[in-house]
Amino acid sequence: MIQRFRHSCMMAASAVALLSAPYATRAASLPPGLTEQAIDTTVERARQAFNVPGIAVAVVHDGQIVFSHGYGRRAEDKGSAPVDGRTLFAIGSNTKEFTATALALLVDQGKLGWDDRVIDHMPDFRVADPSITRDFRVSDLLTHHSGMGLGAGDLMLFSHSTLTRPEILAGLPFMPFTAPFRTQYAYNNLLYVVAGALVERLTGQSWEDVVQKRLIDAAGLPACQSTPPVKGQTNVATGEGESGLLPDKASRLLPGVAPAGGIWCSVDGMARWAQTYLDGGRTPDGRQVFSQASRDALWAPHALLPLPDTAEATRTHFRAYGYGWFMEDFFGYKRVWHTGTIDGMVSYMTFLPELKTGIVILTNHDDHNATYSIATTLSAYAATGTSADWIAHWRDAENAEHAAEAKAATSTGPGSPARPFITLSESAQQDYVGTYRDDWRGPITISRRGPDLRMAFSHADGLSGTLSALPHDLFVVRWDDRGQDGSDDAYVQFERDVSGKVVGMSMRLIGSDFSFDAQDLHPKKVSSSFSEEKEAKGR
User: Fold this and answer.
1) Does residue 288 sit within a domain?
2) pTM
3) What is the pLDDT of residues 457-473, one digit of tens each?
4) SS3 string of 359-411?
5) Is Signal among this UniProt entry's keywords (predicted)?
């Protein structure tokens, strides 16, 4: 959940504090137009404007890491330790370039072709349309133009999901298509999980082992790992709304989402990854981890995207997606980039290859506006020597969005005077109680607890909430975990047959988090009580 932000100007004392940070590696060879002062000022302004506890920034130029610095602290707790170059952050969807690069390794080895049919390597691969199943290519896993909707299947990956990768793949055939195959861009995490499974199928090893040994270790990325941190690791950032408690290694379940967003890495590790990419897959010490031909294929446009709202200001005339990377023109230069958001953290990696420059930004606050502000500002300085005030741009846009949301919530939102909640009798509530089953997400239970109706998802460690009634079988579910799920409160519309019996439900998100894809759920009621379900299983 994104919190309300504090806004303040940077004080002179803040600049002094920056220079006394415990970790700073700097050189005089920053890209022309970009200075240490510009970086410090930009980062600290963004940190204050968007209330970010900690940020790590690195700059690569002409083959060298010329800037690596930590700002602020590792957690929301003001007493937490400072961020440094080896602090582990969750990099979210910047993991996708690692998964795409793992496939590129197989292409380099002749074990795979980008245009190979997926079903030829994974005979059990299925999507909803048999003809699309037969023609689905390896490249289609990576370019977000499969025809599935925005964020399709994310409820199997996020929102406390404990579904395993085999269970996720089993749900794939039930995901609906909302557009013709290969015609419309819609960002998708689910198919990167399939891409990770393809890596596993062709190597006989786990995705985690392949990425760790053949990419992270092979490229020599310091403080970087393909698995979440565990007890005993100390230099670890904590994301917004997270407890900071690390799991026992022995009890940790491998997350299904890992190939789409599971890597944790430091800014020093990501900076070396940037060096390797800028040099065509070769590390600074000369080791060729993947081929330049593969790097060029990953960085080639494969699916066109709409232009961003900022296109005129950045002189952007095209935007596209490659294999695990976005790309666009930016003040006359090619820019390659990707972001990542997971576990209350946001990352941003951006390149200006013609200028031999890469920039890495890692944060522990669940808001992309800070990373967008810093990345766009520093990239503009590197490209042109000057920059618009992107911090003010995204701060103002965010304030306007929050004001509009607050106005809608109080004027026409559920529970407002225009749409007040109603009270149902115990017998009326009983109509809804029971177990519902969705083809791809599994069982969802509705129960009574005291005066309340409760909803809980199976295969989820804590996705549960209270239902508040509106007229006509419509409810709002307010999730218990306000820190992680508060922005994902949703409408729940129950459905009745001609006899008046509740037979199913549908859901729609109230907010705008595309990764809570409740609109694709079509749960049908399979029992009217938990005892009925147990009896049915026993027969």
Assistant:
1) yes
2) 0.90
3) 999 988 999 999 999 99
4) EEEEECCCCHHHHHHHHHHHHHHHHHCCCCCHHHHHHHHHHHHHHHHHHHHHH
5) yes
